[in-house]
């Protein structure tokens, strides 16, 4: 993957957009909101984020898709609930073992929203813990 912002070390542009997601933990499925998305991963708002390195199964429903799909990911970054910078709590998840078809579907969705949303919805690079759009 190429980066539109090589100085940041980010592999794919992120699109700031709220999207419902569900993921499995040892206690069952949890439903939260992803606040940004790219073909390579997402940031999920979560009061109790999973530890870095945790593999997670995510159920994702893209608008316009007839059924939700499952994608595996790995937690790469955590922002705890009680943090000194007052950032939104949650976890950055990098997709793993994603088929080219699924990666293309996600990318098409991101590009479609990018065309429909104002430029403010575009965020360069990997998952950010920024606040969701109002």
Describe the structure.
This protein is mainly beta and 134 residues long. It has a single domain, classed as predicted glycosyltransferase like domains (Thrombin, subunit H, Beta Barrel), CATH 2.40.10.220. Helix content is 13%, strand content 40%. The protein has 1 helix and 7 strands, in the order ββββββαβ. Strands 1-2-3-6-5-4 form a 6-stranded antiparallel β-barrel. The longest helix has 17 residues. The radius of gyration is 14 Å and the shape is globular.
Based on the model shown, name its key terms.
Thrombin, subunit H; single chain; 134 residues; mainly beta; globular
Q: For the largest beta sheet, what order do the strands appear in spatially?
A: 1-2-3-6-5-4
CATH top level is Mainly Beta
Instruction: Report the total helices.
Output: 1
What's the CATH H-level homologous superfamily?
A: predicted glycosyltransferase like domains
For the termini, the CA-CA separation is: 30 Å
Main sheet summary: 6 strands, antiparallel, barrel
* Overall 3D form: globular
Radius of gyration: 14 Å
Order of helices and strands: EEEEEEHE
Q: Which structural class fits the helix and strand makeup?
A: mainly beta
Helical amount: 10-25%
CATH topology-level fold name:
Thrombin, subunit H
Name the CATH architecture.
Beta Barrel
Whole-number count of domains: 1
- Work out the strand percent: 35-45%
Indicate the low-confidence ranges by residue numbers: 1-10, 120-134
User: How many distinct beta strands?
Assistant: 7
Mean pLDDT, to the nearest integer, reads 75
């Amino acid at each position: 993957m190429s980066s539109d912002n090589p100085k940041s070390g980010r592999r794919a542009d992120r699109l700031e957009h709220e999207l419902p997601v569900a993921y499995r933990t040892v206690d069952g499925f949890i439903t939260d909101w992803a606040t940004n998305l790219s073909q390579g991963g997402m940031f999920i708002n979560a009061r109790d984020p999973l530890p870095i390195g945790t593999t997670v199964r995510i159920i994702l429903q893209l608008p316009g898709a007839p059924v939700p799909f499952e994608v595996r990911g790995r937690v790469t970054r955590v922002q705890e609930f009680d943090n000194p910078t007052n950032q939104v709590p949650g976890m950055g998840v990098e997709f793993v073992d994603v088929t080219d078809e699924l990666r293309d579907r996600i990318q098409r969705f991101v590009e479609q929203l990018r065309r429909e949303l104002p430029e403010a919805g575009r965020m360069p690079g990997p998952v950010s813990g920024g606040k969701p759009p109002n």
